[in-house]
Write a structure and sequence with these properties.
The structure is a single chain. By secondary structure, the chain is mainly α. It has a single domain (3-163), classed as Ferritin (Up-down Bundle), CATH 1.20.1260.10. Helices cover 67% and strands 0% of the residues. The protein has six helices and no strands.
């Protein structure tokens, strides 16, 4: 399990443990509830796009790693909904949809660029819209901060590396590649960023 996943889980557990009893007694404003639901929808949409990319290109990184993070993020957001006595949205309605399959570009490098754009948009969504809506809820702020930081500090750099031609997928070049590792194939093989 990655450090990012562990830190998100820890942040969620801290929020639930230290503030959970207060949260159950309190209620969310409409704006705070809408912010949590918008964050969850954003996580579901990201997961669906990354799944569609892998359906086309295979289990390639960073998509295969980041999709698991998106699932963890959705679980954290559902835990917040549960703490406030609201219905969870545990099923992702976008998985396998034709809408997301149609969004996948022709090359993995282009998909990585779309991942960069999506993570920047995600970070900005938290900064400009979601965080201000939950400023009175410390438990929600903790989870939102962890999710925002994961987008900026983990996911964004991974997609930037991938989009820059430094694919970390299933390189089979005859040069310095390391199989499924992090080398860049430099021979006659096919690097993950070259479909």
């Amino acid at each position: 399990m990655s450090r990012m996943t562990l830190s998100i889980i820890a942040a969620g557990l801290i929020a639930v443990t230290t503030i959970g009893t207060t949260a159950k007694a309190a209620t969310l404003t409409d704006g705070a509830r809408t912010a949590i639901e918008a964050a969850l929808e954003d996580e579901h949409r990201a997961e669906a796009f990354y799944a569609a990319v892998m359906a086309k290109f295979g289990e390639v990184r960073p998509f295969s790693n980041i999709i698991r993070a998106e699932q963890t993020h959705a679980s954290e957001l559902n835990a917040l909904l549960q703490n406030y006595g609201l219905d969870q949205k545990t099923t992702n309605p976008h998985l396998g949809s034709a809408e997301f399959a149609a969004l996948v570009p022709e090359t993995l490098a282009e998909a990585c660029k779309m991942g960069v754009d999506a993570e920047i948009a995600n970070r900005d969504l938290y900064d400009k819209k979601l965080m201000p809506a939950v400023q009175d809820y410390a438990d929600v702020q903790i989870v939102f901060t962890a999710l925002r930081d994961a987008s900026e500090n983990k996911h964004l750099p991974a997609f930037e590396r991938c989009g820059g031609g430094q694919g970390q997928g299933m390189g089979q070049g005859m040069g310095q590649g390391q199989g499924h590792g992090q080398g860049m194939g430099m021979g006659h093989g096919k690097n993950a960023t070259q479909p």
